[in-house]
Structures are given as structure tokens and as C-alpha cells.
Amino acid sequence: MSVTSTFARLTVSTALVLGAWSAHAGGHGGHGGHWDYAGEGAPAHWGELDPAFEACAKGGHQSPVNITATEKVALPALGFEYSSAKASVVNNGHTVQVNLPAGNRLKVGEQSYELLQFHFHTPSEEAIQGKRKPLVAHFVHKNAAGELGVVAVLFDFGKVTNAAFKPVFEHMPTKAGETLTADDLTLDLAALLPTDKGYYSFEGSLTTPPCTEGVNWMVLKNPVKLSAAQVNAFKKLFRFNARPVQPLHERKIKESL
Question: From CA 177, how far away is CA 248, in angstroms rounded?
């Protein structure tokens, strides 16, 4: 399959990006169904909560997935054109999300994506050989056609504080709907990523309602280390906010050489 066909999928509008994966404060995901990670609104019931969430139950290319068997191919390198940026940190009721200004891009082959935001899930939604990491950050990008490209950065425990992420974990809002900005909330975005940018690639979906498919997923193989205190700062706000892994069906997971 060509690079163009791999990354030219279902268009997801800016409104969907902001409504489904950004502005779901209060637990509504931009729609009427109250969803959560436990109880009556748990992932097993998402497809029943709102007709707009039908893909959560019936979609064939859902995320996250358990990465086991892969096909090693010459995938295009991930070109992160990230710089320093002033960020704002939002507690949207389901996660902590870091919103970023325009000007930071990801280039994958012929595709160019603008970085919109990144947010966290604990444990990692993606599993590798059945094992999940303590935390993951999803870096959400959108290209000119409205297609999403999401880079997953996995985290392991380290012995020292991660300086690049320190401003985020020091400014996590404690209340749903709260946004924090500060003079010292400037991030060196390139420093948030691992040095080795090898990755797994597959077609998937939003991992929250409405679970829209056509999302291009790139899961970095090498984790970044955070201190236990940093991971726990997030877990104090969200003890568990990970969707179960979904069936692959006919999909193949590609792995960079």
C-alpha cells in the first residue's frame, strides 16, 4: 500500500476533533450520551448511549489495539518539526489535555499534519505483547484535508523528574472544566519525544466517543521515562481512563525497520 493511500482516509472535521477529543468536559464528548470508564457509561456501553456513538460498538477499525505480530516495512520517517511553544492545560473531565498554538508540524512522507494538542491516558491504551505502560500521551495532529494523525508516546518509570514534561505536571488543573496558563508553561516540544522515532503504524479510530474511524495511528516503539511522582500527579486526578483494546479484524500492523 502506498504512503498516499495509507494516510489518505476518512476526513475528520475540525469540529469533531475539538468536540470529541478536546471539548468533552462534563462527560459528553460533544454529544448527548454520558460516557465514562466505569459503571453505566463504561466502554462496553458506549455504542448504546447515543446514535452518534454507533462506531464504538460496530466499527471494524477501532482503537486502541494490542500490538503483537507486525510486518516490518520501510515506513516513512516521522519528521517532527516541533519548537518551543506556550501551552495551556485543560482538565476536560476525562483527561488532562495540553492545547498548543499553531506552528508545530509532523511530516510523514507526503503528508503534513499540524499539532493541535496532546493528552494522557493511564494505563497506556495501547498494549505491546499484551502489556500496558503506566501512562501514554496522544499527540493529536490534523492535515489540511481534516485527517487525523495521532502519535502515541509511551511512558516508563524513571528515577528522576522528566524536565521537559515538568511544566505540565506542575500545572494540572484539579477541577473538570478548569484551564491553567502560566508564564512558565512554555514547552520544548521536541524534548518531549524519545530520541529514536521508530514506530508502529495502523489504521484506527478515536479512542473516546464517537469512536470515529479513519485515524492514522503511529505508536512510538521507545518509551519516555517519567518519575513516579509525575505519573502519580496524573493518577490522582484520573485513576483509570483507558479504553480496552479492540479487535484487529483484518488489519495489519506495520513496524518501521
Answer: 34
Catalytic positions, please? 94
Retrieve residue 37's grid coordinates.
470508564
Residue 235 scores a pLDDT above 90: yes
Local confidence band at 183 (pLDDT 50, 70, 90 cut-offs) = confident
Detail the DSSP E strand segments found in 100-247: 105-108, 111-121, 127-128, 131-132, 135-143, 148-158, 179-180, 186-188, 199-205, 213-220, 224-227
Q: What is the DSSP string of 77-112?
A: PEEEE--EEE-EEEE-SSSEEEE--S--EEEETTEE
Cell (9 digits) for 5: 493511500
Furthest CA-CA distance within the chain: 48
The three three-digit cell numbers of residue 21, written as one number = 477529543
Q: Provide the whole-model pTM.
A: 0.89
Pairing of strands 88-91, 96-99: antiparallel
Q: What is the pLDDT of residues 63-79, one digit of tens each?
A: 999 999 999 999 999 99
Q: What percent of the chain lies above the pLDDT cut of 70?
A: 87
Strand 148-158 with 213-220, pairing: parallel
Q: List phi, psi (to 5°) of 147.
A: -85, 145
Collapsed DSSP state (helix, strand, coil) of residue 214: strand
CB atoms near residue 11 (< 10 Å): 13
